[in-house]
Amino acid sequence: MSIKKFFLLCLCSIMAISCSTKEEIVYFDNAESLEGIENLLEYEPVIEENDVLRINVSSMNEEVVSPFQMNLGGQTSGGGGQNLSLTGYLVDVDGNIQFPILGKIPVAGKTRMEIETMLQTKIREYVTDAVVSVRIMNFRVTVLGEVRSPGRKDITDGRVSIPELIAMSGDITYNGKRENILVIREIEGVKQIGRVDMTSADVFKNPFYYLKQNDVVYVEPTYKQVKSAGFITSYTGVLSLFTSALSLYLLFSR
C-alpha cells in the first residue's frame, strides 16, 4: 500500500509540474486596469547615421518639383534587389543627406515628421504647393528564439511595437517565455538591454514597447524546452522511465 501511495504522489507531482499556468500563457493579464487611460507611450523613431531615406516631393504640377526628386536614371525607387543607398538618401557619418537643389541637409536626430516639415518649408520657397513625405527604407527588426517565424522583418510604416512584431512572427510558441522577452538595442554605438513582459498589461508602459530600426528581439525558451534538449526529453519521458522502473521493482519483489 505504501508503494502505491508513493507512486500516486509522484504521478501527481509530475503532472502538476508539467502543466502550464494561465499566467505563463495569457497575454496582457489585468488589462482592465488600462481602461480609460490615455495613450501611455508616444514614440517616433529618429533618424540615425547610415539610415536610408525615401523622400518624395509632390505637387499639382509634377514637372515643377522634378528638380527636387532623386535622379534614378529612369528606374523606379522601389526596384527589388537594388542597393538601398542607390534608391534613397543615405545619411552620412555627419548626419547629413545631399538633397537636390537644397544641398546638404542635417537629418540625424530628427523624426520623419520633423524632416518633412523642414524640407517642405524650404521647397515651398520655390514651389508653393509642394508636399514632402519621408520614409525609412532600412527599418528592419530581427526576431529570434521561440516564435513560429523568426528572421528579419521589414517594417514599412516606420513604427512597430512588440505585440505587432510577435504577430508578424506567427506568435510565440508554447515553449517560449512570454514574461521575459529580451530586446537588444544600439544607440550611438552603445548597446542597451531591455526586458518586456507580455503577460502583464504594464507592457504598454514599457520603454521598449516600441521598437527602433535594427533592434534584436529574442524570445527565450522555457525551462521545459531547455530540458528537452537533454537525455530525457520531456516530463512524459520521465514518467515513462519511472513507471518502467516501478514495474520492474514490483515484478522482482514478489
Question: What's this entry about, in short?
Answer:
The protein is an alpha+beta fold. It has 8 helices and 12 strands.
The SSE order reads: HHEHHEEEHEEEEHEEEEHH
Strand adjacency order, main sheet:
7-6-12-9-10
| Global structural class | alpha+beta
Which blocks of ≥5 consecutive residues have pLDDT under 50?
A: 73-81
Helix content percent band: 25-40%
What is Rg? 27 Å
DSSP strand content: 15-25%
Q: Mean pLDDT, as a whole number?
A: 80
- Please count the helical segments: 8
How many β-strand stretches? 12
Biggest β-sheet strands, sense, barrel: 5 strands, mixed
Spatial gap, N to C terminus: 14 Å
Shape: elongated
Kindly describe this structure.
The protein has 254 residues and is an alpha+beta fold. Helices cover 28% and strands 22% of the residues. It is built from eight helices and twelve strands. The strands form four sheets. Strands 7-6-12-9-10 form a five-stranded mixed beta sheet, covered by helices on one side. α1 runs antiparallel to α8. The radius of gyration is 27 Å and the shape is elongated. The two termini are 14 Å apart.
